[in-house]
Amino acid sequence: MTDTKHQLPVGPLLTYYGDDFTGSTDVMEAFTASGIPTVLFLQLPRKEHLARFKDMRCIGLAGQSRGQSPEWMRKELPSIFEGLASIGAPILQYKVCSTFDSSPSVGSIGCAIDIGTKITQGNWSPMVVGAPRLKRYQVFGQLFAAVNGVSHRIDRHPTMSRHPVTPMNEADLRLHLSKQTDKRISLVDIADMSEGLGQTKLESFIQTDQPVVMIDVADATTQIEAGRLIWENKGKQVFSASSSGLQYALTAYWKSQGLIDESMQLPIAKPVDAIAVVSGSCSPMSAEQIRWARENGFEVSRLDISKILLDDMMEAEIAQQANAAIAALALAKSPIVFSAEGPDDLAVINFDALASHAALDRTQAAKRIGFALAEIMRRILDGSNVKRIVVAGGDSSGAVGSHLGIHALTLSAGLAPGVPLCRAWSDDPARDGLEIALKGGQLGGVNFYGHVRAGQSH
Which of 84, 161, 220, 425 has a CA between 20 and 30 Å from the CA of residue 356? Predict the structure, then answer.
């Protein structure tokens, strides 16, 4: 069915694979807030799981490719993309982080584009990274991101320029992406958009080689125009490596055309007596959030990395942390177990030395920390009545989500831009209905954990 002025086509509108768990929930928030029902699977769904969510207009799969090699991608992503494409939505998205951190050897966005464009066979591959709601802006191809109300060019960003694995040392996303793919990369820039030349420029770029076409987004006007360009030129099926800026652009355009209701709002969560948190993030914002929690009555405890990395000491450390958290919850106090407090934490600075002492490489050590946090959370849930939890950090979110036996998430309420409160779906009755927020390291305000507990949107 062709969309008209007042109707979108029937069936799924978009399917996506998220390159990490926290960013995957961001898509769900952006669409659900505009009345587009979305489900996020944490593992490849079985037929009965898909049948349970047959009315969803957007179907996603949370992944962890952001930390993987191109060899891993070429092995794993083709079948995933093919499965998502077979659902029949006109847009297949590889959801990337709005800070675009990636490299030719780790989390290569270019590699994902090379794979995805072969499957969809569209005549172009649109890319939207700017998302003003998340304080991400793309202007003349340059990416900017805000911290505490101050916008930084991404190669001068206090966190992303110092990312321990994929530091962003180039703000021009065309140059950055060109190191990851041989595809032609073009740009519909902000001047084209403001002068009404977007369609003309796009048509001049589209040829038989499926070029990547980046679209600048810096404000509400360019966001609507980006959504229009993509939706009206999507063809039968198009592949897009984009942040949740794609969702914000599409919904902004659909609203401008009367295709969806502009008055939709996310529900507000009810307050709870206590929450439980595990954090594997080492971002400055996560550090500020931990400090705020410590000063405001949360039971904050540091995970001893040196013990977690040693086989004969790991179990005792996990048990001690879980038992202390359970005891805190019995007193209606909210526990937070964290592995690092900012990028200058000694646990971060000395991480390679700690891993070497335990005869582990960096990847093995990181996975062990993720497992430890996941196991601590599992024991907290089994030993208490807590029903609302938070996991901070993309890798940690992936480890915890899979460890708890959760197979899908839907959105329950808004908390902070990019960090919704989700409802967990599981075949295990003890996990089904759990409320969970998966928080990227840089997202949320300083008092984010207080808002989660109080059920307030911020």
Answer: 161
